Recover the amino acids of this structure.
């Protein structure tokens, strides 16, 4: 948060915001922040997030005596009492948190992804096993363990090239890609996100499935039993808000 918003440092507390000293706290339970003696009577910027629930919250509250429970631990840190919790001004409450798919896919898939010592092969396996899921830049960086992690998704030797023979395309944060994913009835990649899916040429048994023309032919998101075939090339990319499909 300090890097994102450029908050200045303080000598005692974490940040200087609009001339006020503010202590920033995070807890795994909502509003269960541990407040040190030096933060009493100051503003607390309290954070909470849950990958499991897919939500995060941020709120402001003054750590005044009337808002605090007595300190009982050795470092005399205190928590908000009932009045203090009621006094929190929530800036964001249960806002959507970008999914961390590494916490939701199976152990078998995790083992397969991280088995290789090659960053490129790990990225390939990620998009092979986590199809139809929006994958953030953070996840790609975690799996690649390389500085050039986003380059490993692209064509010309990246995952788009490696997975194309398996019928897998990888949509990115580009308008044409978003429109293509939407036309196939898939989640739309957001800023910094990518999403893979295996596709198949449309056949009679695909009747009723969303389809799209790619590379001059009609394609659908593959269903079990569809044969593997080389995936089509995706439309030329352009930044969100520019170009047309």
């Amino acid at each position: 948060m300090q890097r994102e918003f450029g908050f200045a440092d303080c000598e005692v507390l974490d940040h200087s915001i609009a001339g006020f000293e503010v202590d920033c706290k995070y807890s795994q339970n909502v509003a269960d922040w541990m407040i040190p003696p030096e933060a009493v009577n100051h503003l607390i910027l309290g954070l909470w997030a849950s990958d499991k629930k897919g939500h995060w919250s941020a709120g402001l509250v003054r750590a005044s005596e009337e808002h605090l429970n007595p300190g009982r631990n050795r470092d005399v840190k205190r928590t908000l009492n009932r009045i203090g919790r009621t006094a929190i001004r929530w800036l964001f409450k249960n806002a959507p948190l970008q999914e961390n798919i590494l916490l939701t896919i199976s152990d078998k898939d995790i083992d397969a992804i991280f088995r290789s010592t090659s960053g490129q092969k790990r990225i390939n396996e990620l998009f092979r096993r986590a199809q139809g899921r929006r994958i953030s830049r953070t996840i790609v960086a975690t799996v690649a363990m390389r500085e050039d992690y986003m380059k490993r998704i692209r064509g010309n030797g990246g995952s788009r090239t490696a997975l194309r023979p398996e019928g897998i395309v990888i949509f990115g944060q580009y308008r044409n890609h978003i429109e293509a994913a939407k036309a196939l009835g898939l989640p739309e990649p957001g800023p910094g996100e990518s999403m893979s899916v295996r596709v198949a040429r449309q056949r009679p048994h695909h009747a009723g499935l969303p389809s799209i023309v790619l590379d001059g032919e009609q394609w659908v998101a593959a269903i079990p039993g569809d044969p593997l075939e080389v995936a089509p090339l995706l439309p030329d990319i352009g930044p969100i808000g520019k170009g047309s499909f």
